[in-house]
Task: inverse folding
């Protein structure tokens, strides 16, 4: 151990507080201190390398420090790092808003920037609710959400989430939420709930934090029909599924669905900078024009130029590297390679989003994986594999070998 390494470890143990972490356990062992990334790999201060098998908690798309994104950030930093989006525009944010709306021409025509997945959801909830207040439906104050859903950790987003261990203590202190388990449950909702609901929110195609559980095929399209029929806004949380993770640019494209609000974050910048966007329709936008109807929401770093430059570079890579073309093949290869292994109870996969249930403890399994040079995190007894979309076959082989060797023990 070098003296410097000691310094970082001791500074962390003395002063840092990590997310979703039992600090008592954390303090009981020496943390891995990451210092560098290249492609699908992360390197720690001791020079050990690890395959980033969960894309740094579901954010990375094209690999770490991709030269195209790095140079876009460098160029942007030299020109402008940040200027307020309040009362001012900036060139990169203008371009990015146009580019994102361009995926849903004529329907999602407005883009509201924020910083994280949670804030992208907060924006959608607040927009939906405020729109009702000032557009003739003040009685519509509820949000319908799904059981075991995850929509972020800020107070409002957490109150809509349905993962009990995450919302214990403050799940009650937020929005007015009606929870349903399946599409069928919607049919038995009391009329009063349907008539007073402003929006329904869902993670389309797959619920990530709910151990990578896929919705039945066709469900999203049916939900779109139901929400339109009942005049309820459809909010899609594509914070995890967006930007190619499921094989299409956005998961909603699998069922030809366009929502009223589309929430994007994690992969928006290719996993390089915190940036989020909430896309919405012209109809919602128009309902905020005029005196007393302003949407009072924003953050200091809204429309951050560095983040927008990174996002534009990431989106350009989808074209120049044809990123989406290989996602399904790689995902299928991964699934097929794990398919017959003993000790795996079930595999759930879409695109390059894969979760497999094991008999033992997910935490221990991922600890063993780390010893083999693979980083990921479990969700209960589900091991998540969600590598950068740019992962190559050799790296997939490394990942499969690591998993196999642990299962065989
Ligand atoms: C990660 C995630 C969020 C929250 O995003 P943050 O950037 O962590 O705030 C919300 N919804 C889904 C589906 C997510 O996966």
Result:
């Amino acid at each position: 151990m070098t003296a410097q390494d000691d310094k970082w470890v001791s500074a962390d143990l003395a002063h840092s507080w990590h997310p979703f972490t039992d600090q008592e356990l954390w303090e009981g062992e020496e943390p891995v201190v990451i210092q560098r990334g290249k492609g699908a790999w992360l390197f720690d201060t001791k020079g050990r390398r690890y395959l980033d098998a969960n894309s740094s908690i579901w954010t990375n798309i094209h690999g770490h420090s991709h030269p195209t994104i790095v140079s876009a950030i460098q160029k942007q930093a030299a020109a402008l790092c940040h200027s307020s989006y309040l009362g001012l525009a900036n060139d990169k944010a203008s371009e990015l808003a146009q580019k994102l709306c361009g995926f849903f021409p004529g329907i999602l025509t407005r883009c509201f920037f924020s910083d994280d997945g949670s804030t992208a959801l907060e924006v959608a909830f607040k927009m939906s609710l405020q729109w009702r207040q000032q557009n003739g439906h003040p009685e519509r104050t509820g949000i319908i959400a799904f059981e075991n859903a995850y929509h972020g950790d800020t107070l409002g987003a957490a109150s809509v989430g349905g993962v009990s261990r995450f919302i214990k203590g403050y799940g009650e202190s937020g929005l007015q939420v009606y929870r349903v388990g399946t599409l069928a449950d919607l049919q038995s909702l009391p009329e009063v709930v349907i008539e007073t609901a402003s929006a329904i929110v869902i993670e389309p195609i797959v619920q990530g934090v709910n151990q990578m559980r896929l919705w039945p095929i066709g469900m999203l399209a049916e939900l779109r029909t139901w929400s339109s029929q009942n005049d309820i806004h459809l909010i899609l949380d594509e914070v995890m599924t967006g930007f190619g993770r499921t094989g299409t640019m956005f998961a909603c494209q699998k069922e030809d669905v366009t929502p009223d609000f589309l929430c994007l974050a994690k992969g928006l910048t290719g996993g390089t900078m915190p940036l989020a966007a909430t896309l919405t329709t012209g109809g919602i936008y128009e309902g905020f024009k005029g005196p007393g109807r302003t949407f009072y929401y924003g953050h200091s770093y809204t429309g951050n130029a560095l983040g927008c430059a990174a996002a534009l570079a990431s989106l350009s890579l989808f074209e120049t590297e044809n990123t989406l073309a290989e996602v399904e093949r790689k995902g299928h290869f991964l699934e097929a390679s794990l398919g017959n292994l003993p000790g795996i109870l079930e595999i759930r996969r879409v695109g390059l989003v894969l979760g497999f249930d094991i008999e033992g403890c997910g935490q221990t399994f991922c600890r063993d994986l780390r010893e083999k040079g693979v980083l990921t995190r479990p969700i209960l007894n589900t091991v998540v594999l969600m590598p950068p979309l740019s992962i190559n076959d050799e790296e997939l082989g490394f990942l499969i070998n690591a998993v196999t060797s642990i299962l065989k023990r």
Remarks:
- The pocket of pyridoxal-5'-phosphate is lined by residues 58, 116-118, 150-152, 203, 208, 237, 239-240, 265-266 (CB under 6 Å).
- The longest helix spans residues 117-134.
- The chain has 16 helices and 17 strands.
